[in-house]
Amino acid sequence: xxxxxxxxxxxxxxxxxxxxxxxxxxxxxxxxxxxxxxxxxxxxxxxxxxxxxxxxxxxxxxxxxxxxxxxxxxxxxxxxxxxxxxxxxxxxxxxxxxxxxxxxxxxxxxxxxxxxxxxxxxxxxxxxxxxxxxxxxxxxxxxxxxxxxxxxxxxxxxxxxxxxxxxxxxxxxxxxxxxxxxxxxxxxxxxxxxxxxxxxxxxxxxxxxxxxxxxxxxxxxxxxxxxxxxxxxxxxxxxxxxxxxxxxxxxxxxxxxxxxxxxxxxxxxxxxxxxxxxxxxxxxxxxxxxxxxxxxxxxxxxxxxxxxxxxxxxxxxxxxxxxxxxxxxxxxxxxxxxxxxxxxxxxxxxxxxxxxxxxxxxxxxx
Length: 366
Hints:
alpha/beta; Rossmann fold; six-stranded parallel beta sheet; 13 helices
């Protein structure tokens, strides 16, 4: 089976959630004995990526995939003809949208990997109100088109599948759940002494998007610290500017950014607990990453975090601050979960489990 993969997420943003799953798809497709894989994307002129990826003759920056003129030129002007010339039978796109525009070539089927619908359902951060409006309109049109023309839609969680059905009930028979690959860290954790971490700390990963719920969480943590001196200090992997000025420099609050994988491994490993307070998540990679090194987690309820977190892990409402503060105080006096049990849970999202599910979905496309 000749399968084409939209490689724009991996080429432009390899460390993002979309980019990492794009690479996971590439590796799984290459490992399948009955698949001949071709990659499609954009790159600057004379860029080495062009040696292994089908690109238009015209050049485009790797990080320019969200620019509407570049997208339209690629998805409408280049892709249909390029897929036909390459003899592609199945074309897979994993950026929530981006399937080719125009008439579908005969014999070609489309697969859309849709991680979430937050581009349509939530307020996202943009540089200006005008940009926010333009993105919302164009994202809606593109997602609508991709959902309509796809023969299969793969979601990373039942939560995302259910959210998709709310807006697109006609897509019911197309939807399949493929949880994300979380391969975990390779090698030893770095010595993070130079990061000057506190002796005891809780950890939160990701602060930028409003749905991460960080200002609310930090306020609850501050209240818990006032109730008990045993509540650990807090490390945020993100930027101070993502918090209101009144919360940016609280005693015991620390920030980290630009970490290597080995450093991130060490930060996860030494944390007493990872907290994920998001009120909306399509999956939740940091949760599985923490569990994979034996670090306990506590998550907000009401989204995909409910599915991917061990049933005995603490959960809390993403809106009840006093209840969260009380939970924090209780957990300081509660023994942590067994690390081996946590690592075993994380293996359910590792390469072997992912490939088994993926190969089943590929068989379905034959």
